[in-house]
From TrEMBL:
Lineage of source species: Bacteria, Pseudomonadati, Bacteroidota, Chitinophagia, Chitinophagales
UniProt keyword annotations, A-Z: Hydrolase, Signal
Enzymatic class: hydrolase
Region forming the signal peptide: 1-22
GO term, biological process aspect, one: beta-lactam antibiotic catabolic process
Glycoprotein is among the record's keywords: no
Classification via InterPro entries: Beta-lactam/transpept-like (IPR012338), Beta-lactam_cat (IPR045155), Beta-lactam_class-A (IPR000871)
Organism name: Paraflavitalea soli
Name this polypeptide is given: beta-lactamase
One Pfam assignment: Beta-lactamase2
GO molecular function terms noted in the UniProt entry: beta-lactamase activity
Family: Belongs to the class-A beta-lactamase family.
Domain of life: Bacteria
Protein backbone atom coordinates (compact mmCIF):
# COMPACT_ATOMS: atom_id res chain seq x y z
CA UNK A 1 0.00 0.00 0.00
CA UNK A 2 2.83 2.38 0.92
CA UNK A 3 4.55 1.59 -2.38
CA UNK A 4 1.37 2.36 -4.37
CA UNK A 5 0.89 5.70 -2.61
CA UNK A 6 4.50 6.61 -3.21
CA UNK A 7 4.19 5.68 -6.89
CA UNK A 8 1.03 7.80 -7.20
CA UNK A 9 2.77 10.81 -5.64
CA UNK A 10 5.77 10.41 -7.95
CA UNK A 11 3.51 10.19 -10.98
CA UNK A 12 1.62 13.31 -9.91
CA UNK A 13 4.87 15.23 -9.43
CA UNK A 14 6.14 14.06 -12.83
CA UNK A 15 2.98 15.33 -14.54
CA UNK A 16 3.10 18.58 -12.58
CA UNK A 17 6.73 19.25 -13.49
CA UNK A 18 5.96 18.48 -17.13
CA UNK A 19 3.03 20.90 -17.17
CA UNK A 20 5.10 23.62 -15.50
CA UNK A 21 7.90 23.12 -18.01
CA UNK A 22 5.44 23.42 -20.90
CA UNK A 23 4.02 26.61 -19.39
CA UNK A 24 7.49 28.09 -18.98
CA UNK A 25 8.13 27.57 -22.69
CA UNK A 26 4.95 29.39 -23.67
CA UNK A 27 5.18 33.03 -24.73
CA UNK A 28 1.94 34.05 -23.05
CA UNK A 29 1.73 37.48 -24.64
CA UNK A 30 2.15 36.05 -28.14
CA UNK A 31 -0.18 33.18 -27.29
CA UNK A 32 -2.92 35.65 -26.44
CA UNK A 33 -2.38 37.55 -29.68
CA UNK A 34 -2.61 34.37 -31.76
CA UNK A 35 -5.74 33.21 -29.95
CA UNK A 36 -7.33 36.61 -30.57
CA UNK A 37 -6.28 36.60 -34.24
CA UNK A 38 -7.78 33.20 -34.98
CA UNK A 39 -10.97 34.08 -33.12
CA UNK A 40 -11.34 37.39 -34.95
CA UNK A 41 -11.08 35.81 -38.40
CA UNK A 42 -14.09 33.52 -37.99
CA UNK A 43 -12.42 31.04 -40.33
CA UNK A 44 -14.92 28.65 -41.87
CA UNK A 45 -12.70 25.63 -41.47
CA UNK A 46 -9.96 24.28 -39.22
CA UNK A 47 -6.65 26.05 -38.52
CA UNK A 48 -3.48 24.98 -36.72
CA UNK A 49 -0.46 27.12 -35.82
CA UNK A 50 2.88 26.53 -34.13
CA UNK A 51 5.42 29.32 -33.63
CA UNK A 52 8.87 29.06 -32.07
CA UNK A 53 11.41 31.73 -31.29
CA UNK A 54 14.63 29.90 -32.17
CA UNK A 55 16.74 32.18 -29.97
CA UNK A 56 14.75 31.92 -26.74
CA UNK A 57 12.88 28.65 -27.28
CA UNK A 58 9.56 30.31 -26.42
CA UNK A 59 6.53 29.01 -28.30
CA UNK A 60 2.90 29.79 -29.05
CA UNK A 61 0.43 27.41 -30.60
CA UNK A 62 -3.10 26.78 -31.71
CA UNK A 63 -4.21 23.19 -32.39
CA UNK A 64 -0.56 22.48 -33.11
CA UNK A 65 -0.87 18.69 -32.91
CA UNK A 66 -3.83 18.34 -35.27
CA UNK A 67 -3.01 16.47 -38.48
CA UNK A 68 -3.47 18.48 -41.68
CA UNK A 69 -2.93 17.91 -45.40
CA UNK A 70 0.48 19.21 -46.43
CA UNK A 71 -0.42 19.97 -50.05
CA UNK A 72 2.91 21.13 -51.56
CA UNK A 73 4.63 21.45 -48.17
CA UNK A 74 5.28 17.71 -48.63
CA UNK A 75 8.11 18.83 -50.91
CA UNK A 76 10.21 19.63 -47.84
CA UNK A 77 10.23 15.93 -46.78
CA UNK A 78 10.96 14.98 -50.41
CA UNK A 79 13.92 17.39 -50.27
CA UNK A 80 15.16 15.55 -47.18
CA UNK A 81 14.99 12.26 -49.09
CA UNK A 82 16.97 13.64 -52.04
CA UNK A 83 19.62 15.23 -49.81
CA UNK A 84 20.10 11.91 -48.04
CA UNK A 85 20.79 10.25 -51.40
CA UNK A 86 23.27 13.02 -52.29
CA UNK A 87 24.97 12.70 -48.90
CA UNK A 88 25.45 8.96 -49.48
CA UNK A 89 26.87 9.52 -52.96
CA UNK A 90 23.95 7.76 -54.67
CA UNK A 91 23.06 11.01 -56.46
CA UNK A 92 25.13 14.06 -57.37
CA UNK A 93 23.78 17.58 -56.92
CA UNK A 94 24.93 18.68 -60.40
CA UNK A 95 24.43 15.40 -62.26
CA UNK A 96 22.49 15.40 -65.52
CA UNK A 97 19.13 13.66 -65.66
CA UNK A 98 17.10 12.72 -68.72
CA UNK A 99 13.48 13.78 -68.82
CA UNK A 100 10.91 11.31 -70.14
CA UNK A 101 7.31 11.97 -71.18
CA UNK A 102 6.23 9.27 -68.75
CA UNK A 103 7.20 11.62 -65.89
CA UNK A 104 4.61 14.22 -66.86
CA UNK A 105 2.09 15.26 -64.23
CA UNK A 106 -0.68 17.11 -66.05
CA UNK A 107 -0.80 20.81 -65.21
CA UNK A 108 1.06 24.04 -65.87
CA UNK A 109 4.48 22.90 -64.69
CA UNK A 110 7.66 24.12 -66.37
CA UNK A 111 9.30 20.70 -66.43
CA UNK A 112 6.25 19.24 -68.15
CA UNK A 113 6.99 21.43 -71.18
CA UNK A 114 10.30 19.62 -71.78
CA UNK A 115 10.63 17.24 -74.71
CA UNK A 116 11.30 13.61 -73.94
CA UNK A 117 15.05 13.00 -73.95
CA UNK A 118 16.06 16.51 -72.90
CA UNK A 119 18.71 16.79 -70.17
CA UNK A 120 18.45 18.78 -66.95
CA UNK A 121 20.62 18.96 -63.84
CA UNK A 122 19.30 17.42 -60.63
CA UNK A 123 19.92 20.77 -58.90
CA UNK A 124 17.57 22.48 -61.34
CA UNK A 125 14.86 19.86 -60.84
CA UNK A 126 15.16 20.57 -57.09
CA UNK A 127 14.90 24.29 -57.79
CA UNK A 128 11.73 23.74 -59.83
CA UNK A 129 10.21 21.64 -57.03
CA UNK A 130 10.86 24.19 -54.29
CA UNK A 131 10.88 27.56 -56.05
CA UNK A 132 8.08 26.97 -58.54
CA UNK A 133 6.37 24.07 -56.70
CA UNK A 134 6.55 22.12 -59.96
CA UNK A 135 4.63 18.87 -59.44
CA UNK A 136 6.26 16.98 -62.31
CA UNK A 137 9.66 17.79 -60.82
CA UNK A 138 8.45 16.86 -57.33
CA UNK A 139 7.11 13.43 -58.25
CA UNK A 140 10.29 12.70 -60.21
CA UNK A 141 12.36 13.62 -57.17
CA UNK A 142 10.15 11.51 -54.91
CA UNK A 143 10.94 8.49 -57.08
CA UNK A 144 14.66 9.38 -57.16
CA UNK A 145 14.62 9.57 -53.36
CA UNK A 146 13.75 5.87 -53.34
CA UNK A 147 10.17 5.50 -52.18
CA UNK A 148 7.69 7.38 -50.06
CA UNK A 149 8.28 4.71 -47.42
CA UNK A 150 12.01 5.48 -47.40
CA UNK A 151 11.33 9.20 -46.96
CA UNK A 152 8.96 8.35 -44.12
CA UNK A 153 11.69 6.31 -42.44
CA UNK A 154 13.94 9.37 -42.54
CA UNK A 155 11.18 11.48 -41.03
CA UNK A 156 10.66 8.90 -38.30
CA UNK A 157 14.40 8.98 -37.52
CA UNK A 158 14.05 12.73 -36.95
CA UNK A 159 11.37 12.10 -34.33
CA UNK A 160 8.49 13.14 -36.59
CA UNK A 161 5.62 10.80 -35.85
CA UNK A 162 2.84 12.21 -38.03
CA UNK A 163 4.62 13.88 -40.95
CA UNK A 164 4.42 11.45 -43.85
CA UNK A 165 4.36 11.11 -47.62
CA UNK A 166 1.12 9.37 -48.59
CA UNK A 167 0.92 9.49 -52.38
CA UNK A 168 2.54 6.62 -54.29
CA UNK A 169 3.44 5.02 -50.96
CA UNK A 170 2.19 1.44 -50.44
CA UNK A 171 0.18 0.97 -47.27
CA UNK A 172 -0.83 4.62 -47.01
CA UNK A 173 -3.78 4.59 -49.40
CA UNK A 174 -6.31 5.43 -46.66
CA UNK A 175 -4.13 8.32 -45.48
CA UNK A 176 -3.90 9.60 -49.06
CA UNK A 177 -7.70 9.56 -49.39
CA UNK A 178 -8.02 11.61 -46.21
CA UNK A 179 -5.04 13.98 -46.46
CA UNK A 180 -3.78 13.82 -50.04
CA UNK A 181 -0.10 13.78 -51.06
CA UNK A 182 1.19 14.21 -47.52
CA UNK A 183 0.25 14.98 -43.95
CA UNK A 184 1.80 16.82 -41.02
CA UNK A 185 1.09 18.85 -37.90
CA UNK A 186 2.07 22.49 -37.36
CA UNK A 187 4.38 21.46 -34.51
CA UNK A 188 6.18 18.79 -36.53
CA UNK A 189 6.68 20.86 -39.67
CA UNK A 190 8.07 23.75 -37.63
CA UNK A 191 10.33 21.25 -35.85
CA UNK A 192 11.63 20.02 -39.22
CA UNK A 193 12.41 23.59 -40.30
CA UNK A 194 14.16 24.21 -36.98
CA UNK A 195 16.26 21.08 -37.39
CA UNK A 196 17.29 22.20 -40.88
CA UNK A 197 18.20 25.62 -39.46
CA UNK A 198 20.33 24.02 -36.75
CA UNK A 199 22.13 21.71 -39.18
CA UNK A 200 20.59 18.55 -37.73
CA UNK A 201 19.04 17.03 -40.87
CA UNK A 202 21.29 14.54 -42.73
CA UNK A 203 24.40 16.63 -41.95
CA UNK A 204 25.34 20.23 -41.31
CA UNK A 205 26.39 20.65 -44.95
CA UNK A 206 23.18 19.07 -46.25
CA UNK A 207 21.09 21.26 -43.94
CA UNK A 208 22.83 24.38 -45.22
CA UNK A 209 22.08 23.36 -48.81
CA UNK A 210 18.42 22.77 -47.92
CA UNK A 211 18.19 26.16 -46.24
CA UNK A 212 19.58 27.86 -49.34
CA UNK A 213 17.17 26.19 -51.77
CA UNK A 214 14.23 26.85 -49.45
CA UNK A 215 15.12 30.54 -49.59
CA UNK A 216 14.06 30.91 -53.25
CA UNK A 217 10.27 30.71 -53.10
CA UNK A 218 8.53 32.26 -56.11
CA UNK A 219 5.15 32.04 -54.37
CA UNK A 220 5.48 35.00 -52.03
CA UNK A 221 2.20 36.98 -51.95
CA UNK A 222 1.06 35.75 -48.53
CA UNK A 223 3.20 35.13 -45.44
CA UNK A 224 6.47 36.08 -47.12
CA UNK A 225 5.00 39.38 -48.29
CA UNK A 226 4.68 40.49 -44.68
CA UNK A 227 8.45 40.28 -44.08
CA UNK A 228 10.88 42.92 -45.44
CA UNK A 229 12.51 41.84 -48.73
CA UNK A 230 15.99 42.33 -47.26
CA UNK A 231 15.40 39.62 -44.62
CA UNK A 232 16.31 36.01 -45.48
CA UNK A 233 13.27 33.75 -45.45
CA UNK A 234 13.26 29.98 -46.02
CA UNK A 235 9.81 28.68 -46.78
CA UNK A 236 7.42 26.36 -48.56
CA UNK A 237 3.78 27.00 -49.31
CA UNK A 238 1.07 24.54 -50.22
CA UNK A 239 -2.54 24.79 -51.19
CA UNK A 240 -5.40 22.73 -52.55
CA UNK A 241 -9.09 23.65 -52.72
CA UNK A 242 -9.85 23.12 -49.04
CA UNK A 243 -6.43 23.91 -47.57
CA UNK A 244 -3.90 26.77 -47.39
CA UNK A 245 -0.55 26.16 -45.69
CA UNK A 246 2.80 27.84 -45.08
CA UNK A 247 5.93 26.84 -43.20
CA UNK A 248 8.34 29.74 -42.79
CA UNK A 249 11.71 30.44 -41.17
CA UNK A 250 12.56 34.13 -40.76
CA UNK A 251 16.11 35.27 -39.98
CA UNK A 252 14.92 38.30 -38.05
CA UNK A 253 17.49 40.80 -36.67
CA UNK A 254 16.65 40.02 -33.04
CA UNK A 255 16.62 36.26 -33.52
CA UNK A 256 15.32 33.71 -35.99
CA UNK A 257 11.81 32.37 -35.63
CA UNK A 258 9.96 29.59 -37.40
CA UNK A 259 6.29 28.83 -37.74
CA UNK A 260 3.78 26.74 -39.61
CA UNK A 261 0.16 27.50 -40.32
CA UNK A 262 -2.07 24.74 -41.66
CA UNK A 263 -5.74 24.83 -42.59
CA UNK A 264 -8.25 22.24 -43.76
CA UNK A 265 -11.95 21.81 -44.52
CA UNK A 266 -12.16 25.40 -45.75
CA UNK A 267 -15.55 26.46 -47.03
CA UNK A 268 -13.93 29.31 -48.94
CA UNK A 269 -12.30 27.53 -51.89
CA UNK A 270 -11.70 30.62 -54.01
CA UNK A 271 -8.30 31.31 -55.54
CA UNK A 272 -8.38 35.04 -55.00
CA UNK A 273 -6.14 36.90 -52.49
CA UNK A 274 -9.25 37.36 -50.34
CA UNK A 275 -9.46 33.60 -49.63
CA UNK A 276 -10.00 33.22 -45.88
CA UNK A 277 -7.06 30.85 -45.49
CA UNK A 278 -4.65 33.17 -47.25
CA UNK A 279 -5.90 36.18 -45.31
CA UNK A 280 -5.15 34.33 -42.07
CA UNK A 281 -1.67 33.43 -43.38
CA UNK A 282 -0.90 37.08 -44.14
CA UNK A 283 -2.27 38.38 -40.85
CA UNK A 284 -0.33 35.81 -38.85
CA UNK A 285 2.90 36.66 -40.68
CA UNK A 286 2.37 40.39 -40.08
CA UNK A 287 1.58 39.79 -36.41
CA UNK A 288 4.77 37.76 -35.92
CA UNK A 289 7.06 40.22 -37.70
CA UNK A 290 5.65 43.15 -35.73
CA UNK A 291 5.83 41.18 -32.48
CA UNK A 292 9.44 40.06 -32.87
CA UNK A 293 10.64 43.28 -34.51
CA UNK A 294 8.54 46.04 -32.87
CA UNK A 295 10.99 48.78 -33.83
CA UNK A 296 10.95 47.90 -37.50
CA UNK A 297 9.61 50.80 -39.58
CA UNK A 298 8.94 48.54 -42.57
CA UNK A 299 5.30 47.84 -43.34
CA UNK A 300 3.84 45.61 -46.03
CA UNK A 301 1.83 47.43 -48.69
Amino acid sequence: MYYCKRLTVCLFLFILVGNLAAQSRTDRKLQQKIDELVKSQNLRGVAGIYVKNLRTGKVAEYQADTIFPTASIVKVPILVGIMDKIEKGELQYHQNLEYKDSLLYAGEDILGSFKSGEKIELSKVMMLMLTMSDNTASLWLQSLAGTGARINQLLDSLGLQYTRVNSRTPGREDNRKQFGWGQTTPREMTTLMEKIYRGEVISHKASERMLRVLGRNYHDPNGISQVPPYIFVASKTGEVNQSRNETILVMAPHGAYAYTINTKNLEDQSWEPSNEGWVLCRKLAALLWQYYEPRSKWKAE
